[in-house]
Structures are given as C-alpha cells and as structure tokens.
Amino acid sequence: MNAKRTDFLATVVINLIVATVVGILVFLLAYILISGLPHVSWSFLTGTTDAFSGAGGIGVQLFNSFYLLVLTMLISVPISLGAGIYLAEYAKDNWRTSLIRSAIEVLSSLPSVVVGLFGFLLFVVKFKIGFSVISGAIALTFFNLPLLTRNIEESLSAVSRSQREAGLSLGLSKWKTEIGIILPVALPGIVTGIVLSAGRVFGEAAALIYTAGQSAPVTNFGDWNPMDPASPLNPFRPAETLAVHIWKVNTEGLANNAAQLSAAASAVLIIAVLLFNLGARLLGNFLYRRVTASK
Amino acid sequence: MEQTNFQLKKQKSQSNDWSARLHHATRATREDWMGKGISYLCIGVIILVVASMLWFITSKGVATFTQNHVSLTKFLFGTNWAPDQGHIGALPMIVGSFAVTFAAAIVATPFAVGTAIFMTEISPNKGRKLLQPVIELLVGIPSVVYGFIGLAVVVPFMRHVVGGSGFGIISATFVLFVMVLPTITSMTVDSLRAVPRHFKEASLALGATRWQTVSRVILRSATPGILTAVIFGMARAFGEALAVQMVIGNAAIMPKNLISPASTLTSQLTTGIGDTIDGTLPNNALWSLALILLLMSLFFNALVRVIAKRGQLKHER
C-alpha cells in the first residue's frame, strides 16, 4: 500500500471516528430530551415525592439543588478568590508554593465519592450534624475549591503586567492593585469559571449521597425563617437533590414508572446544566465587553 | 548644663518623631498586611482540608489492619467478600475497578486521539465550531445521567446482544468510555497544539503525506502529553462511582467474564457505607477500600508528574 492510499484511509477512519463521537452526543441528548420532556409538566416540577416509592414530582429536590448550589457558592467563591489571589500575587516561586500547588492538584483529582465520604465522616459521624444541607454544601465546597482556585488564579495571572505596574507606581498597595485594578479586568474569566463550576456542582451526586442525604422531607414553602425545622431554608434538614433523586429512583426506588420519572428528571437536569454552560458563555462575553469597552 | 540637656532632649524628641514616622507602616503597607493575611488564610483553609482529608481517610482505612488485625495480604488478595462474617477479601473489587478503568481507556484512546487529530490537523475550523462544543457538552452531562442512560439503553442492549442480565464490566466500560472521552480528547488536543509548527512544516517539506506527518512526527512528539491525557482519563474512570454502580450489577464476586455482574471499589462504597455501623469490621473494611481509592488517585497524580518530567527532558535534548 503506498503512502497516498494510507493517507486517504487514515483520513476516512478519522472522519468515521469523529462522526461516531458527534453521533454519541446527539443520541444522548436526543434520547434524554425525547424520552424525558413529554413527562415534564408543571405539576411534575412543583409536586412532592412519595417518600416510600420515590414516585411523584420533583419540586422539593429542585429547590434543594438550587439552595445547595447557592450555599456552596457562598462558601467556596470567597475562599477560592483569596487562594487565587495568593497564588497569582503573593506566592513566591519556591518549594512551599509548589507543595501548595500539588496539594490543590491532589484535591482536584480525588474521586468525588472520596470527598463525599470525608464529608460524611466529618459532619455526620464526628460532629453529629446529620444528613443536612450544610454538610452537603461544605462537601461540595471541598470538591469545588481546587477547580475554582485554579480558574481564578489563571484569570488573574492572564492580566498584563503593565496594569500591575501602573497600580503600584501610583503608590497603591499590592492588595489595592489586585482588588481595584486586576480583579475587574479578570472578572469575565472568573465569572465564566464560576458559572461553569455551578453546572458541575448542580449535577454532582456522589459527594452528596452521604452528606446531604437521600431524603427530601416535605417543607413548608410559606415559612422562610431559616431556624424553623420545617422551613425550606433551614440548613440542618436533610436535602436530596435532583441528581441524587435520579440515582435513588434508579437503584432503590419502587416506583413502577421509574424509567419515565428518571428520564424526566434527567431532562430537567440536563437543561439546567446546558443553561449554565450557555449562561457562562453569554455572561462572560457581556462582562468582557463592559469591562474592556470593546464592541 | 541645663540648657544642653534641654537641647539634647529636644533633638531627641524630634528624631523620635521622625523615626516614628519612618518606622511606622504606611496605610498602603497596612493594607498589604491585611491582604496578605486574608489570602494566606484562604490558602491555609485549602491546605487544612487536604491534610485532614488524607489523615482521616488513612487513619480510618488502616483500622482494619491495626484494630481488627486483618492481614494485609488477605485483604488485598482474598477473593471472599462477606464482611458480616469476617471475610474481607477485596480482590474482586480491585480487579473490577482496574478492569473497567483499563477497558474504558483502551476503547476511548483511539477515539480521543482520532478526534483530536481531526480538530488540530484535518479541519481546525470545524474542530473549533463543531467539536469543541460537543466535547464541552459531553463534559457537562452529570454522571447520574450517564448512569441512567447506561441503565436504560446499554444494559438492555447488552442483554439482547450477549445474553445474561446485561449488568457487568462490559456495560460499565461502555458508560465510562463516553465519560472519559472528553477528558482525554481535550487534553490530547492541547498537547497536539503544543507541537512546534516547524516540526510539521519540515516533515511536509520532505514530501511526507499528512498521515505520515501526523503518525511519525506529531503524535510521536506529543506522546508524553497524550499519555498524561490517558492517565487523567483513567483516574476519572477509576474514581467514578454512581454511573458505574448503576450498570455493573454490584456483585462482590471475582468477575469470571465481562458480562456477569461484578463490582468496583466505588460501587461497593456507595452501596455499603450507609448500611454499616461506625467502628465495626464491615465499616472499617469499606474505609480500607476508600483508602485504596485515595492511594490510587495519588499514584495517578505522581505518574502524571513523572511523565511530564520525562517529556521535558526529551524535548530539551
């Protein structure tokens, strides 16, 4: 076989491979949306779940997912912002910094089930908080911190040196320069990273099964006092999220329409994650235009 | 005498004033201290989390051997997993985990490398506009959704094609293949793009065809990067819990073939940890499985470093 024939054959094979990959994605999305969307209705989105069989609506789970997401972001964004600033601005190039970087790398490569088990051990077993929103949010924070920190550090480091020098030459402190000049310039990248990580957090289940729990007690949506046990905002109640619900229905659920239920819930989950991805891109572009004044 | 003393005092107080001004921190310096404090605190929190995670899981994981006096070889090479009766041979799970990881990596690598070659060499334009979003979407799909599709599509398909229950290593391989594909692909794309342009130009100028250039020059010089990508994919497959747990069948027995129910470290952990009591042997045994997961993740991490260092050396020579 001569070189040209081989070249042609290789090109054909690679094109087939690419077609397969695209086909897989199209099939996945089409399958979920086609089998799930017909079962999504307003009563499904807002209804409550039958605690025994797992059948019924996903209202509480949907709320739990968003509530956990907000709490996780409230905890993890400030910490990773500080850590990102440390790595981008204060860290010297020495063994201590490389140790810190490897620690972050280790945290990011740990399987999420291990992170979840650590949360379970710490909050449920040791501190006896029990399966609760707050345990889940902190476990998700552990899982979110390394990626967010790296993203923030990269966005900050990408800002040109001259901006830093301009700030320092005006007599501003390093900290003021970072907060007042560098951070706004880096904001589009940071926001994109935060929204993308929100999509990841929204779909995560393995870290939550043993921290936020697998039950979604019906809450009283008229009661917004976070201290009341029946309030949806109470951080010490167990909170099954949408992703955990899909897992539960498929593995332990007794509902006779489990396939339909999880298809519908998967469709909702996928649409939420797609919206996060799209939102990240749009918001990033919008902020970039605002900050850089470029059309 | 009195006067000189007075003058001296005056001088001293003046110099004190100056030294006070010169030795005291300015506002900017104080701001910087605060900033340093805040950012050191944040990085400290992360270090604390990592350290306590390693410490807690290790101390829990070794309890099986220190408190329950199970021998390490029995744990690692025993094939009988019945913690309630005191038998904790973890080999079935270890074999299961490695089997699905390697199988998924072997299936996914050609697809990932092919896609990456398409994106960088054959059609960069389509690559950016079509395949980049495809890869990002595949990354974004949550693992429970992969598990659900595995359960709804792959398992019945396998049952139909090869018989049996459909649950097993081969179904898990299929699901993991799709899950690690985007990881390996996007990292392979990065390493193909990092190949110096003149390598490719030199090869083409010698009259090599595109495939000759790709296979003999580009892939070869990107090998360390591709290996890193595959290891990252394997790390993801090894640690994936729910999607695998949903399709593998969760039978803690030595897998005899690819189509009978088996189990992995992660699947055993997710099913078991809620049903056991803290401090008992069945519970400790599960923590030992978690310790294996942790150690493997550290091992994958170290492997990536070694390859990165080797790759650098090669380029420098």
What does the secondary structure layout of this molecule look like, with pairings?
The complex is a heterodimer of chains A (295) and B (317).
Chain A: H1 3-36, H2 42-46, H3 59-90, H4 95-109, H5 112-126, H6 133-157, H7 161-169, H8 174-203, H9 242-251, H10 258-292
Chain B: H1 2-23, H2 27-66, H3 72-77, E1 81-82, E2 87-88, H4 91-122, H5 124-140, H6 143-162, H7 169-193, H8 197-205, H9 210-221, H10 223-239, H11 242-248, H12 265-272, H13 281-316
Antiparallel strand pairs in B: 1-2
Helix pairs in contact in B: 2-13, 4-5, 4-7, 4-10, 5-7, 6-7, 6-11, 7-10, 7-11, 8-9, 10-13, 11-12, 12-13
Q: What report would you give on this structure?
A:
The complex is a heterodimer of chains A (295) and B (317). By secondary structure, chain A is an all-alpha fold. Chain A has two domains: 1-39; 44-292, MetI-like fold. In chain A, 71% of the residues lie in helices and 0% in strands. Chain A contains ten helices and no strands. Chain A has helices at residues 3-36, 42-46, 59-90, 95-109, 112-126, 133-157, 161-169, 174-203, 242-251, 258-292. Chain B has 317 residues and is mostly helical. Chain B has two domains: 19-66; 77-316, MetI-like (MetI-like fold, Orthogonal Bundle). In chain B, 79% of the residues lie in helices and 1% in strands. Chain B has a two-stranded antiparallel sheet with strand order 1-2. In chain B, helix 4 runs parallel beside helix 7 and helix 4 crosses helix 10. The longest helix of chain B is centred in the first third of the chain and has 40 residues, at 27-66. The radius of gyration of chain B is 29 Å and the shape is flat. The interface between A and B is large, with 89 and 83 residues.
